[in-house]
From TrEMBL:
PANTHER family: ARGININE-TRNA-PROTEIN TRANSFERASE 1, ARGINYL-TRNA--PROTEIN TRANSFERASE 1
Positions of the N-end aminoacyl transferase N-terminal domain: 13-81
Pfam families: ATE_C, ATE_N
Role played: Involved in the post-translational conjugation of arginine to the N-terminal aspartate or glutamate of a protein. This arginylation is required for degradation of the protein via the ubiquitin pathway.
UniProt KW keywords: Acyltransferase, Transferase, Ubl conjugation pathway
EC id: 2.3.2.8
GO CC terms: cytoplasm
Organism domain of life: Eukaryota
UniProt domain N-end rule aminoacyl transferase C-terminal: residue ranges: 268-392
The reaction(s) this protein catalyses: an N-terminal L-alpha-aminoacyl-[protein] + L-arginyl-tRNA(Arg) = an N-terminal L-arginyl-L-aminoacyl-[protein] + tRNA(Arg) + H(+)
Ranges for region Disordered: 93-122
MF annotations from Gene Ontology: arginyl-tRNA--protein transferase activity
Source organism per UniProt: Saprolegnia diclina (strain VS20)
Designated name of the protein: Arginyl-tRNA--protein transferase 1
Amino acid sequence: MSVVRLYGSRPTQCGYCAAKKESRQYVLEAISLAIDDYQALIDRGWRRSGMHLYQPDRDEICCVPYTIRLHAPQFTPSKAHVRVQRKLEAFLEHRNGSKKRKRPDDDDEAGPQAKKTSPSPTCVLLQTQLETAVWAYLESWIDDTAAAKTTLQPKIQVQRTKATASKAIDRGAYTSPVAHAISAYLKKHATASISAADVAVAIAARMTLPSSDMTVSAVNGFLNFSVDDEPALVSAPPTSPLQTPASPRHSSKRDWVLETVRPVNTPEIYDVYKAYQAHVHDDNAVTPSSFESFLVQSPLPAVPGSAEGSFFQLYRLDGELVAVGVIDVLGANWSSVYFFYKPKYAHLQLGTYSVLREIARCTRGNYYMGYYIGSCVKMQYKARFTPSELLCPKTLTFVPLTPDVQARADADASKVVQLAPATTLASPPQDDAVDAIELVFTDCVVSVKDARASLHPVVLQHLVDFAAMVGPHLTSRLRVQMF
């Protein structure tokens, strides 16, 4: 039986955008939580942080989060994913790593005298689609497109992102800065002050990509394209959900081991977490107790010998702990909670590598990657694991993450977008659903129906909100602990 304590709607700072605006989220404290109940909550947009469950209030948030999941058995790694695997293998094989082999379609960075190469077929294809979207957008702003073409046509270019590019650009993909040129042109010739960021979002929404392996996103005025169109290696699945797949054989003495344990707070693990938070998130205020409450504590059952519940995945290199993945195993499904690593190993892209390993071990169900927020650069990598689905927050149904769905979700990150047809809109809770909630007091358990007359109106409203947030199925399963 699951038991929760209500905290209602609470203010919080947005951690996903540079604005750092105050947002609100619904919070529950889970005293105990059954596996099936947490699975049902995740499928309604909830996540957990330690013992607390939360769901952003999408009416009062600057960045709308969409739950994203991947159907693991259908996943095929892209060429970019395979490169991550090979990079680690090369590092383990040669100790000092190996020189990056130049791909035929990489930009030549040897200098101004370097030999110029023809654009790759992918660049040509993306540029053709980009031109169509650009002129479709400009038709609504200018009458004399002939004059505009003289100025803007040479600037409609797509190129592979260089390693030295700005952090605003999605590394390893294709990119175009044309939105900046369009913004400047409109300001001069159409007296329209439109930012490059807004132009990029509008053009991305108008693009029709020829393949589901291609995605487009708008980041700080750049149009970034992800292309995952080559077959890749697929690792053999383990024989049980928590059995560690055999690591690749290496001729060197480097030993790469993945160990799965129940969450535990040790100095070794905490030191890796502390270094990661300081380096990646500029957070120097972490303490052992904050780490404990954030990642070690879990309301999920920890039955000895069970393959379900919360786990730490410890990655060791020659015995040294270099990274930790935090996961919840929910029957056939896996939910990624967090990942942290030693900063000196950042070049190995261990975050992506850990996702690949977890997907390989989630052999029968869905792999939940948390939230997807199109305006957050750090989250855009999630859309490159396919086939993925986004949870429509209005219908509470999952829809395939197609380029069209992604463009609509990314178009305005501050507004909730209905991604699924309006045939199953979530409805407000009925009185009988609220009456079915069981309240846990010190000496008894009473239904809301029997206690309604004695409940304060504020408490009753909290229970109505709770029923709306968890749905009719869970109102009869989640008991509410009264303060």
